[in-house]
Design brief:
heterodimer; A: alpha+beta; 2 domains; 8-stranded mixed β-sheet; two-stranded antiparallel ribbon; 5 helices; B: 714 residues; alpha+beta; 22 helices; 44% helix; 8% strand; flat
């Protein structure tokens, strides 16, 4: 949720459950402006909230040069003091995060132990050895960082054309972007994932006949597996507003106003992946 | 002349600083233009081309072109280093029309320059490609001079806007010509007013049972405080929609239940209690239907003897084409060698009956709508089976009430039934209030609620009697009650409420059976058997016309059976009762079933709202502020699962016909030699009888066939 149209954006996320109370909104908006100023970010966004048992985590991110590569994530428990989220690299932690059963506690320093799934190896000739399930020690701060990263990677959305790749490879919001029009809004191929593209550039370009190098380098959401089931697209408010909800991470909501550059996503949820998705259609 | 044109350029373009650098070179080469000869041939063309370009770019440039046109005749002499000539050649190159789009670079560049100067976008150089693409794209848009009504596509929002206006039932014709229509309309208005008044009169006796807060806009204030932040427009529409529902004559009270997201559309849900008359009229219908359903199949009136399938004749035996030569009578008398065709067997199956309308799970009716301008649709009643199955599955709602629910185990019903079951379960699980906020009805109120007219003085005595009588039943019926707001409830400080201990459930728990009040299925089964036995005997007797002696026997038997029933009385299933504490809530999936949040932590101590969030049903919230306590649900309608839902596995394929190892005996295929030997053997067998007696020609039908076939093979 871009800080520039914070309140308006909040309103546009129709009926997506509990959002922010007035006090939280004021605290967050103003403290994020301060944060942006301190860090000299050229863009500042509220990412969302992860519900925890004691205290909820509020997540925000900002960028200076490149809005995909050098995003910096912050979290806050009290809605006005923001701490940098650690950068997680270890695959073990990601693995443990996806497997963790317990809800978040609300204390970043708390340690939990997560039992990974047992590993299977083919030892010799048709002999399968079962590895003892590994127990990983997981700090909640790391878990938070990992879950934020995973959710952003999998279902953060922007409309096509909102991000622009410059000739030097930087990606910045497109100031020429003036929104999708009537014919484009309800088509999932006009929405892109807000992440560094994973598909090959050629693959992404070849999906469209009117491709455009600086715009179509991102992956579109209609190619997210399970195809056609990962997102639910709705038109709201006299069909002037698009709301896309992720079915994989319930709580991730994206909005875009037709014919305006306003768009944004917000995650309000408990950080649980919907692993039953394939059975739910 | 060239000088002139240059000057025109620089004057025409008001704000370009770059162009200021241009005039000096032009000035230095003042005299050269006069010597141009070849230029004439190019420049008039150029000028024509230029004037024919798009409106946006031609203004400044065409002026220069016109100038050159005017001075056309003067220029005569040509000299090799001629700037004008070079410029024109360059121009001509740029103005070459594309064979694909019919566009040319010169126009495009001048468009871009004009746009940049007019609009002055920041950092154009960084987005030059995008900017240029935009400019080109806009060229294909309809120019402004095109009549706007020539092509007018209906705006997407128009349909919705019309719907919304219609739903508000505005008096369109009031200013219209026909006064009759207007009068009619007033007349109708008068009627509706009367009806409303009538309704209120009816309500007066029920006024005390109105426990719902019907005012959406009032609640909106609290919702906003809590952070639901539904926009004011939506709330107003919601209020209008609910008003439409509320003025309906069969509805006593209604409240906004919440919103369940669907894939294509979400559902706005309103909870309502029906008026007593409505309930009674529906109840009568429902009771009949239920009675019929609980009857043993053989006793049902609508039961039809299914005719046996027509003869299983030769068409079912193999080789129909070989049978033309036989008469039909003969064929009918033949018996196929195959096993009989299995007939359908009726299996008696009884569902646990749903609770009647107005009690238990069906105490409240639910109305849903996809968009607030539509008409409300009532959801059907919920059956125990639907509740039970809905616990085993997890589906996305699509937004279409008639959509099929494809699941295992098979859900009995459409999406509306599933939605209704989910609503019932969520309501039962998440509706809470502080201790003492609600109270049970007194006996008197209960009777008033059930519509019995009390007569002042006798009440108390009756009450006492009732208490005596009902004590036994109370234990079981305990849960299925409607609670009333406790007038004596004192607002408690939020600090003392910020713990689940201070909260109680205010809606009846749904048992595992899928009902609020436990239904003794075993007993019902026995009763059915008894009824069936009796029924069969009655029919026998009718047929035989025997005397009454046996009936007495029957009665004796019945009594015996009843005793048996009492002995085999199985323990009724129990769950947490209504008004049980939230501190006792248990969930195997999550340790803390309730989250407690306050809307402001740091300031505004006096106007804080306390919010209870359910973890078991993410999306269910209850807030309390002083004496206002309301619950709302905004979510997907899914129960919480720590990792994933333990779905039932599909059974093995064709489980009902199990195969043992001995059913399939493996054997190796016969070799060619073996087959040949077998054929030999067959032939020799056929030859023997033929050679024994040629007079034996009356073979069995099949044998005859076989022999014919074989002879053909040979």
């Amino acid at each position: 949720m871009n800080l520039e149209y914070f309140t308006e954006g909040m309103d546009c996320l129709m009926y997506c459950g509990l959002k922010l109370s007035p006090e939280q909104r004021i605290l967050i908006e103003n403290s994020l402006i301060a944060l942006q100023n301190d860090n000299r970010f050229s863009g500042m966004y509220l990412w969302g909230r992860i519900t925890a048992t004691k205290n909820d985590y509020y997540i925000a991110f900002g960028y200076t040069n490149d809005c995909l590569k050098d995003r910096k994530y912050f979290y806050s428990l009290d809605q006005f003091q923001w701490q940098l989220l650690p950068f997680v690299q270890s695959p073990k932690i990601f693995q443990a995060t996806t497997l963790a059963r317990e809800p978040f506690m609300g204390d970043p320093s708390v340690m939990s132990y997560v039992k990974l799934d047992p590993t299977f190896e083919i030892v010799g000739n048709h002999v399968v050895g079962v590895g003892r399930p590994e127990v990983v020690k997981l700090k909640e701060e790391d878990r938070l960082a990992a879950i934020v990263f995973i959710i952003t990677e999998e279902c953060a959305i922007c409309p096509r054309g909102a991000l622009y790749k410059m000739t030097d490879g930087r990606v910045i919001p497109n100031p020429m972007f003036c929104g999708l029009d009537n014919l484009q809004v309800d088509n999932q191929s006009f929405y892109q994932l807000y992440r560094l593209p994973r598909n090959d550039l050629k693959v992404n370009l070849s999906k469209r006949s009117d491709y455009n190098y600086p715009i179509d380098f991102l992956d579109t959401i209609d190619c997210v597996i399970p195809l056609g089931q990962a997102f639910a697209l709705n038109l709201q408010r006299n069909e002037r507003l698009v709301v896309i909800k992720s079915c994989l991470w319930l709580g991730m909501t994206f909005f875009h106003k037709i014919n305006s550059h306003k768009h944004g996503f917000l995650y309000l949820g408990d950080g649980k992946k919907n692993s039953d998705l394939l059975f739910m259609y | 002349m060239d000088n002139n044109s240059c000057q025109n350029f620089s004057f025409g373009s008001t704000s370009s600083s770059d162009l200021l650098g241009l005039p000096p070179p032009c000035v230095t080469k003042k005299k050269k233009p006069e010597k141009i000869i070849v230029e004439h041939e190019t420049s008039p063309k150029c000028s024509q081309l230029i004037t024919s370009t798009s409106t946006s770019s031609s203004t400044t440039i065409s002026m220069g072109a016109f100038d050159s046109d005017c001075h056309f005749n003067k220029a005569q002499v040509k000299e090799p280093p001629n700037i004008d000539y070079e410029v024109n050649v360059a121009k001509a190159i740029m103005q070459q029309y594309s064979t694909l789009s019919g566009d040319n670079l010169f126009d495009h560049l001048s468009d871009i320059i004009k746009r940049v100067i007019d609009e002055r976008p920041p950092n154009v150089i960084d987005f030059f490609e995008e900017f240029s693409r935009n400019v080109r794209e806009q060229k294909f848009h309809l120019p402004e001079r095109f009549p706007p009504n020539g092509i007018f596509d209906e705006v997407r929002t128009f349909k919705v806007a019309k719907q919304i206006l219609q739903s508000m039932q505005l008096p369109y014709n009031i200013e219209g010509e026909d006064l009759v229509g207007a009068e009619d309309l007033y007349g109708e208005d008068g009627k509706t007013n009367d009806e409303e008044e009538l309704r209120i009169v009816v309500d007066d006796s029920m006024r005390q049972f109105v426990t719902f807060n019907e005012r959406v806009q009032q609640l909106q204030f609290y919702w906003n405080q809590c952070g639901f932040s539904i926009s004011n427009d939506d709330i107003f529409q919601l209020a209008c929609a609910m008003n439409r529902l509320q003025t309906h004559s069969s509805i006593m009270q209604c409240r906004f239940w919440g919103c369940i997201n669907g894939l294509k559309a979400s559902y706005y849900i309103v909870e309502a209690t029906l008026t007593r008359e409505e309930i009674q009229s529906r109840l009568a219908m429902m009771q009949d239907e239920m009675r019929e359903k609980q009857l043993p199949i053989k006793m049902r009136h609508d039961r039809q003897e299914r005719p046996l399938p027509p003869h299983i004749g030769p068409e079912l035996t193999p080789g129909i084409y070989g049978w033309e030569g036989y008469a039909i009578e003969e064929l009918e008398n033949m018996k196929p060698k195959a096993a009989d065709v299995p007939l359908v067997e009726e299996i008696e199956f009884y569902d646990i009956p749903p609770e009647y309308i107005g009690v238990g799970c069906n105490r409240y009716s639910y109305f849903v709508v996809n968009s607030l301008s539509d008409d409300w649709i009532e959801l059907p009643i919920v059956t125990p089976r639907q509740v039970v199955i809905s616990r085993q599955i997890k589906k996305f709602l699509t937004g279409d009430l008639e959509a099929d629910v494809i699941s295992y185990p098979c859900f009995p019903g459409k999406e509306k039934h599933y939605l209704r079951a989910m609503i019932g379960r969520i309501t039962a699980g998440t509706y809470i209030a502080p201790i003492g906020y609600y109270r049970r009805m007194t006996k008197k109120e209960k009777r008033a609620f059930e519509g019995e007219l009390d007569e002042g003085e006798e009440e108390e005595e009756e009450d006492e009697e009732d208490e005596d009588l009902n004590e036994g039943e109370d234990q079981i019926e305990d849960n299925d009650v409607m609670l009333l707001k406790n007038e004596k409830y004192e607002a408690e400080p939020l600090g003392s409420l910020a713990t689940p201990v201070a909260w109680v459930h205010v809606r009846s728990n749904i048992l595992n059976q899928g009902r609020v009040v436990w239904f003794n299925e075993e007993k019902a089964q026995k009763e059915r058997e008894k009824a069936l036995a009796l029924y069969l005997k009655m029919r026998l007797m009718e047929e035989m016309e025997e005397e009454l002696e046996e009936e007495e026997d029957v009665e004796d038997e019945e009594e015996g059976e009843e005793e048996g029933v009492i002995e085999g009385f199985n323990q009724p299933e129990t769950g947490p009762s209504i008004l049980s504490s939230c501190a006792n809530d248990m969930s195997p999936e999550i340790a803390t079933p309730w989250l407690i949040r306050q809307t402001s932590k740091y300031t505004n101590q006096k106007e804080r709202v306390l919010l209870m969030q359910s973890n078991v049903w993410p999306g269910a919230h209850t807030f309390i502020f002083e004496k206002t306590c309301e619950s709302i649900y905004l979510g997907w309608g899914h129960k919480y699962h720590a990792r994933n839902m333990p779905f039932n596995h599909l059974p093995m394929v064709q489980e009902e016909y199990t195969h043992g190892a001995e059913d399939f005996i493996e054997a190796s295929d016969p070799t060619v030699e073996e087959e040949a030997a077998y054929r030999e053997w067959l032939l020799s067998k056929q030859r023997k009888p033929a050679s024994l007696g040629e007079d034996i020609e009356e073979f069995d039908d099949e044998d005859g066939d076989e022999s014919e076939e074989h002879s053909e093979d040979d």
